[in-house]
């Protein structure tokens, strides 16, 4: 049997990212791993890189946030959605307009568009909107209603 256990997201400030998801999405911290120096090549990073991580539970789904310290790290934020390595978290919410309004008031969050509802095609009843986190990560807010 195969199942998805978690998804990971690199962040520039682990503490701030954990606080963001705990405060605004009700995430629960399952565990943290303080800074580890060495062994990063196991994760596809240079051997001299260091990392720390936090595993969160967001509504029953696990998200691993990883902060890196590496002399080869490229400044400028995460890959854009249209670039290789670009990714997003899709979070189902009970009240999408209310969550969007709540996040819109958070410093550094950018609302990338108003909610769109699909009435036909492969996702009838889906309403979604995207926001950029304070560090540039992409989050899709979604709700599966009826068309």
Could you name the CATH homologous superfamily of the largest domain?
2,3-Dihydroxybiphenyl 1,2-Dioxygenase, domain 1
Average residue-wise pLDDT: 90
- CATH topology heading of the largest domain: 2,3-Dihydroxybiphenyl 1,2-Dioxygenase, domain 1
Q: What's the number of extended β-strand segments? A: 9
Strand content: 35-45%
- Number of discrete domains: 2
Using the 3D structure, state the CATH architecture of the largest domain.
Answer: Roll
Structural class: mainly beta
Helix count equals: 2
Shape: globular
The CATH top-level class label of the largest domain = Alpha Beta
Distance between the termini: 34 Å
Spans of 5+ residues with little confidence (pLDDT < 50)?
none
Helix percentage range: 10-25%
Strand/helix succession: EHEEEEHEEEE
What would you note in describing this structure?
- The protein is mainly beta and 147 residues long.
- The protein has two domains: 71 residues, 2,3-Dihydroxybiphenyl 1,2-Dioxygenase, domain 1; 62 residues, Roll (2,3-Dihydroxybiphenyl 1,2-Dioxygenase, domain 1).
- The chain contains two helices and nine strands.
- The strands form two sheets. Strands 5, 6, 7, 8 and 9 form a five-stranded mixed β-sheet that branches. Strands 1-4-3-2 form a four-stranded mixed β-sheet, with helices on one face.
- The chain starts with 6 loop residues before the first strand and ends with a strand.
- The mean pLDDT is 90.
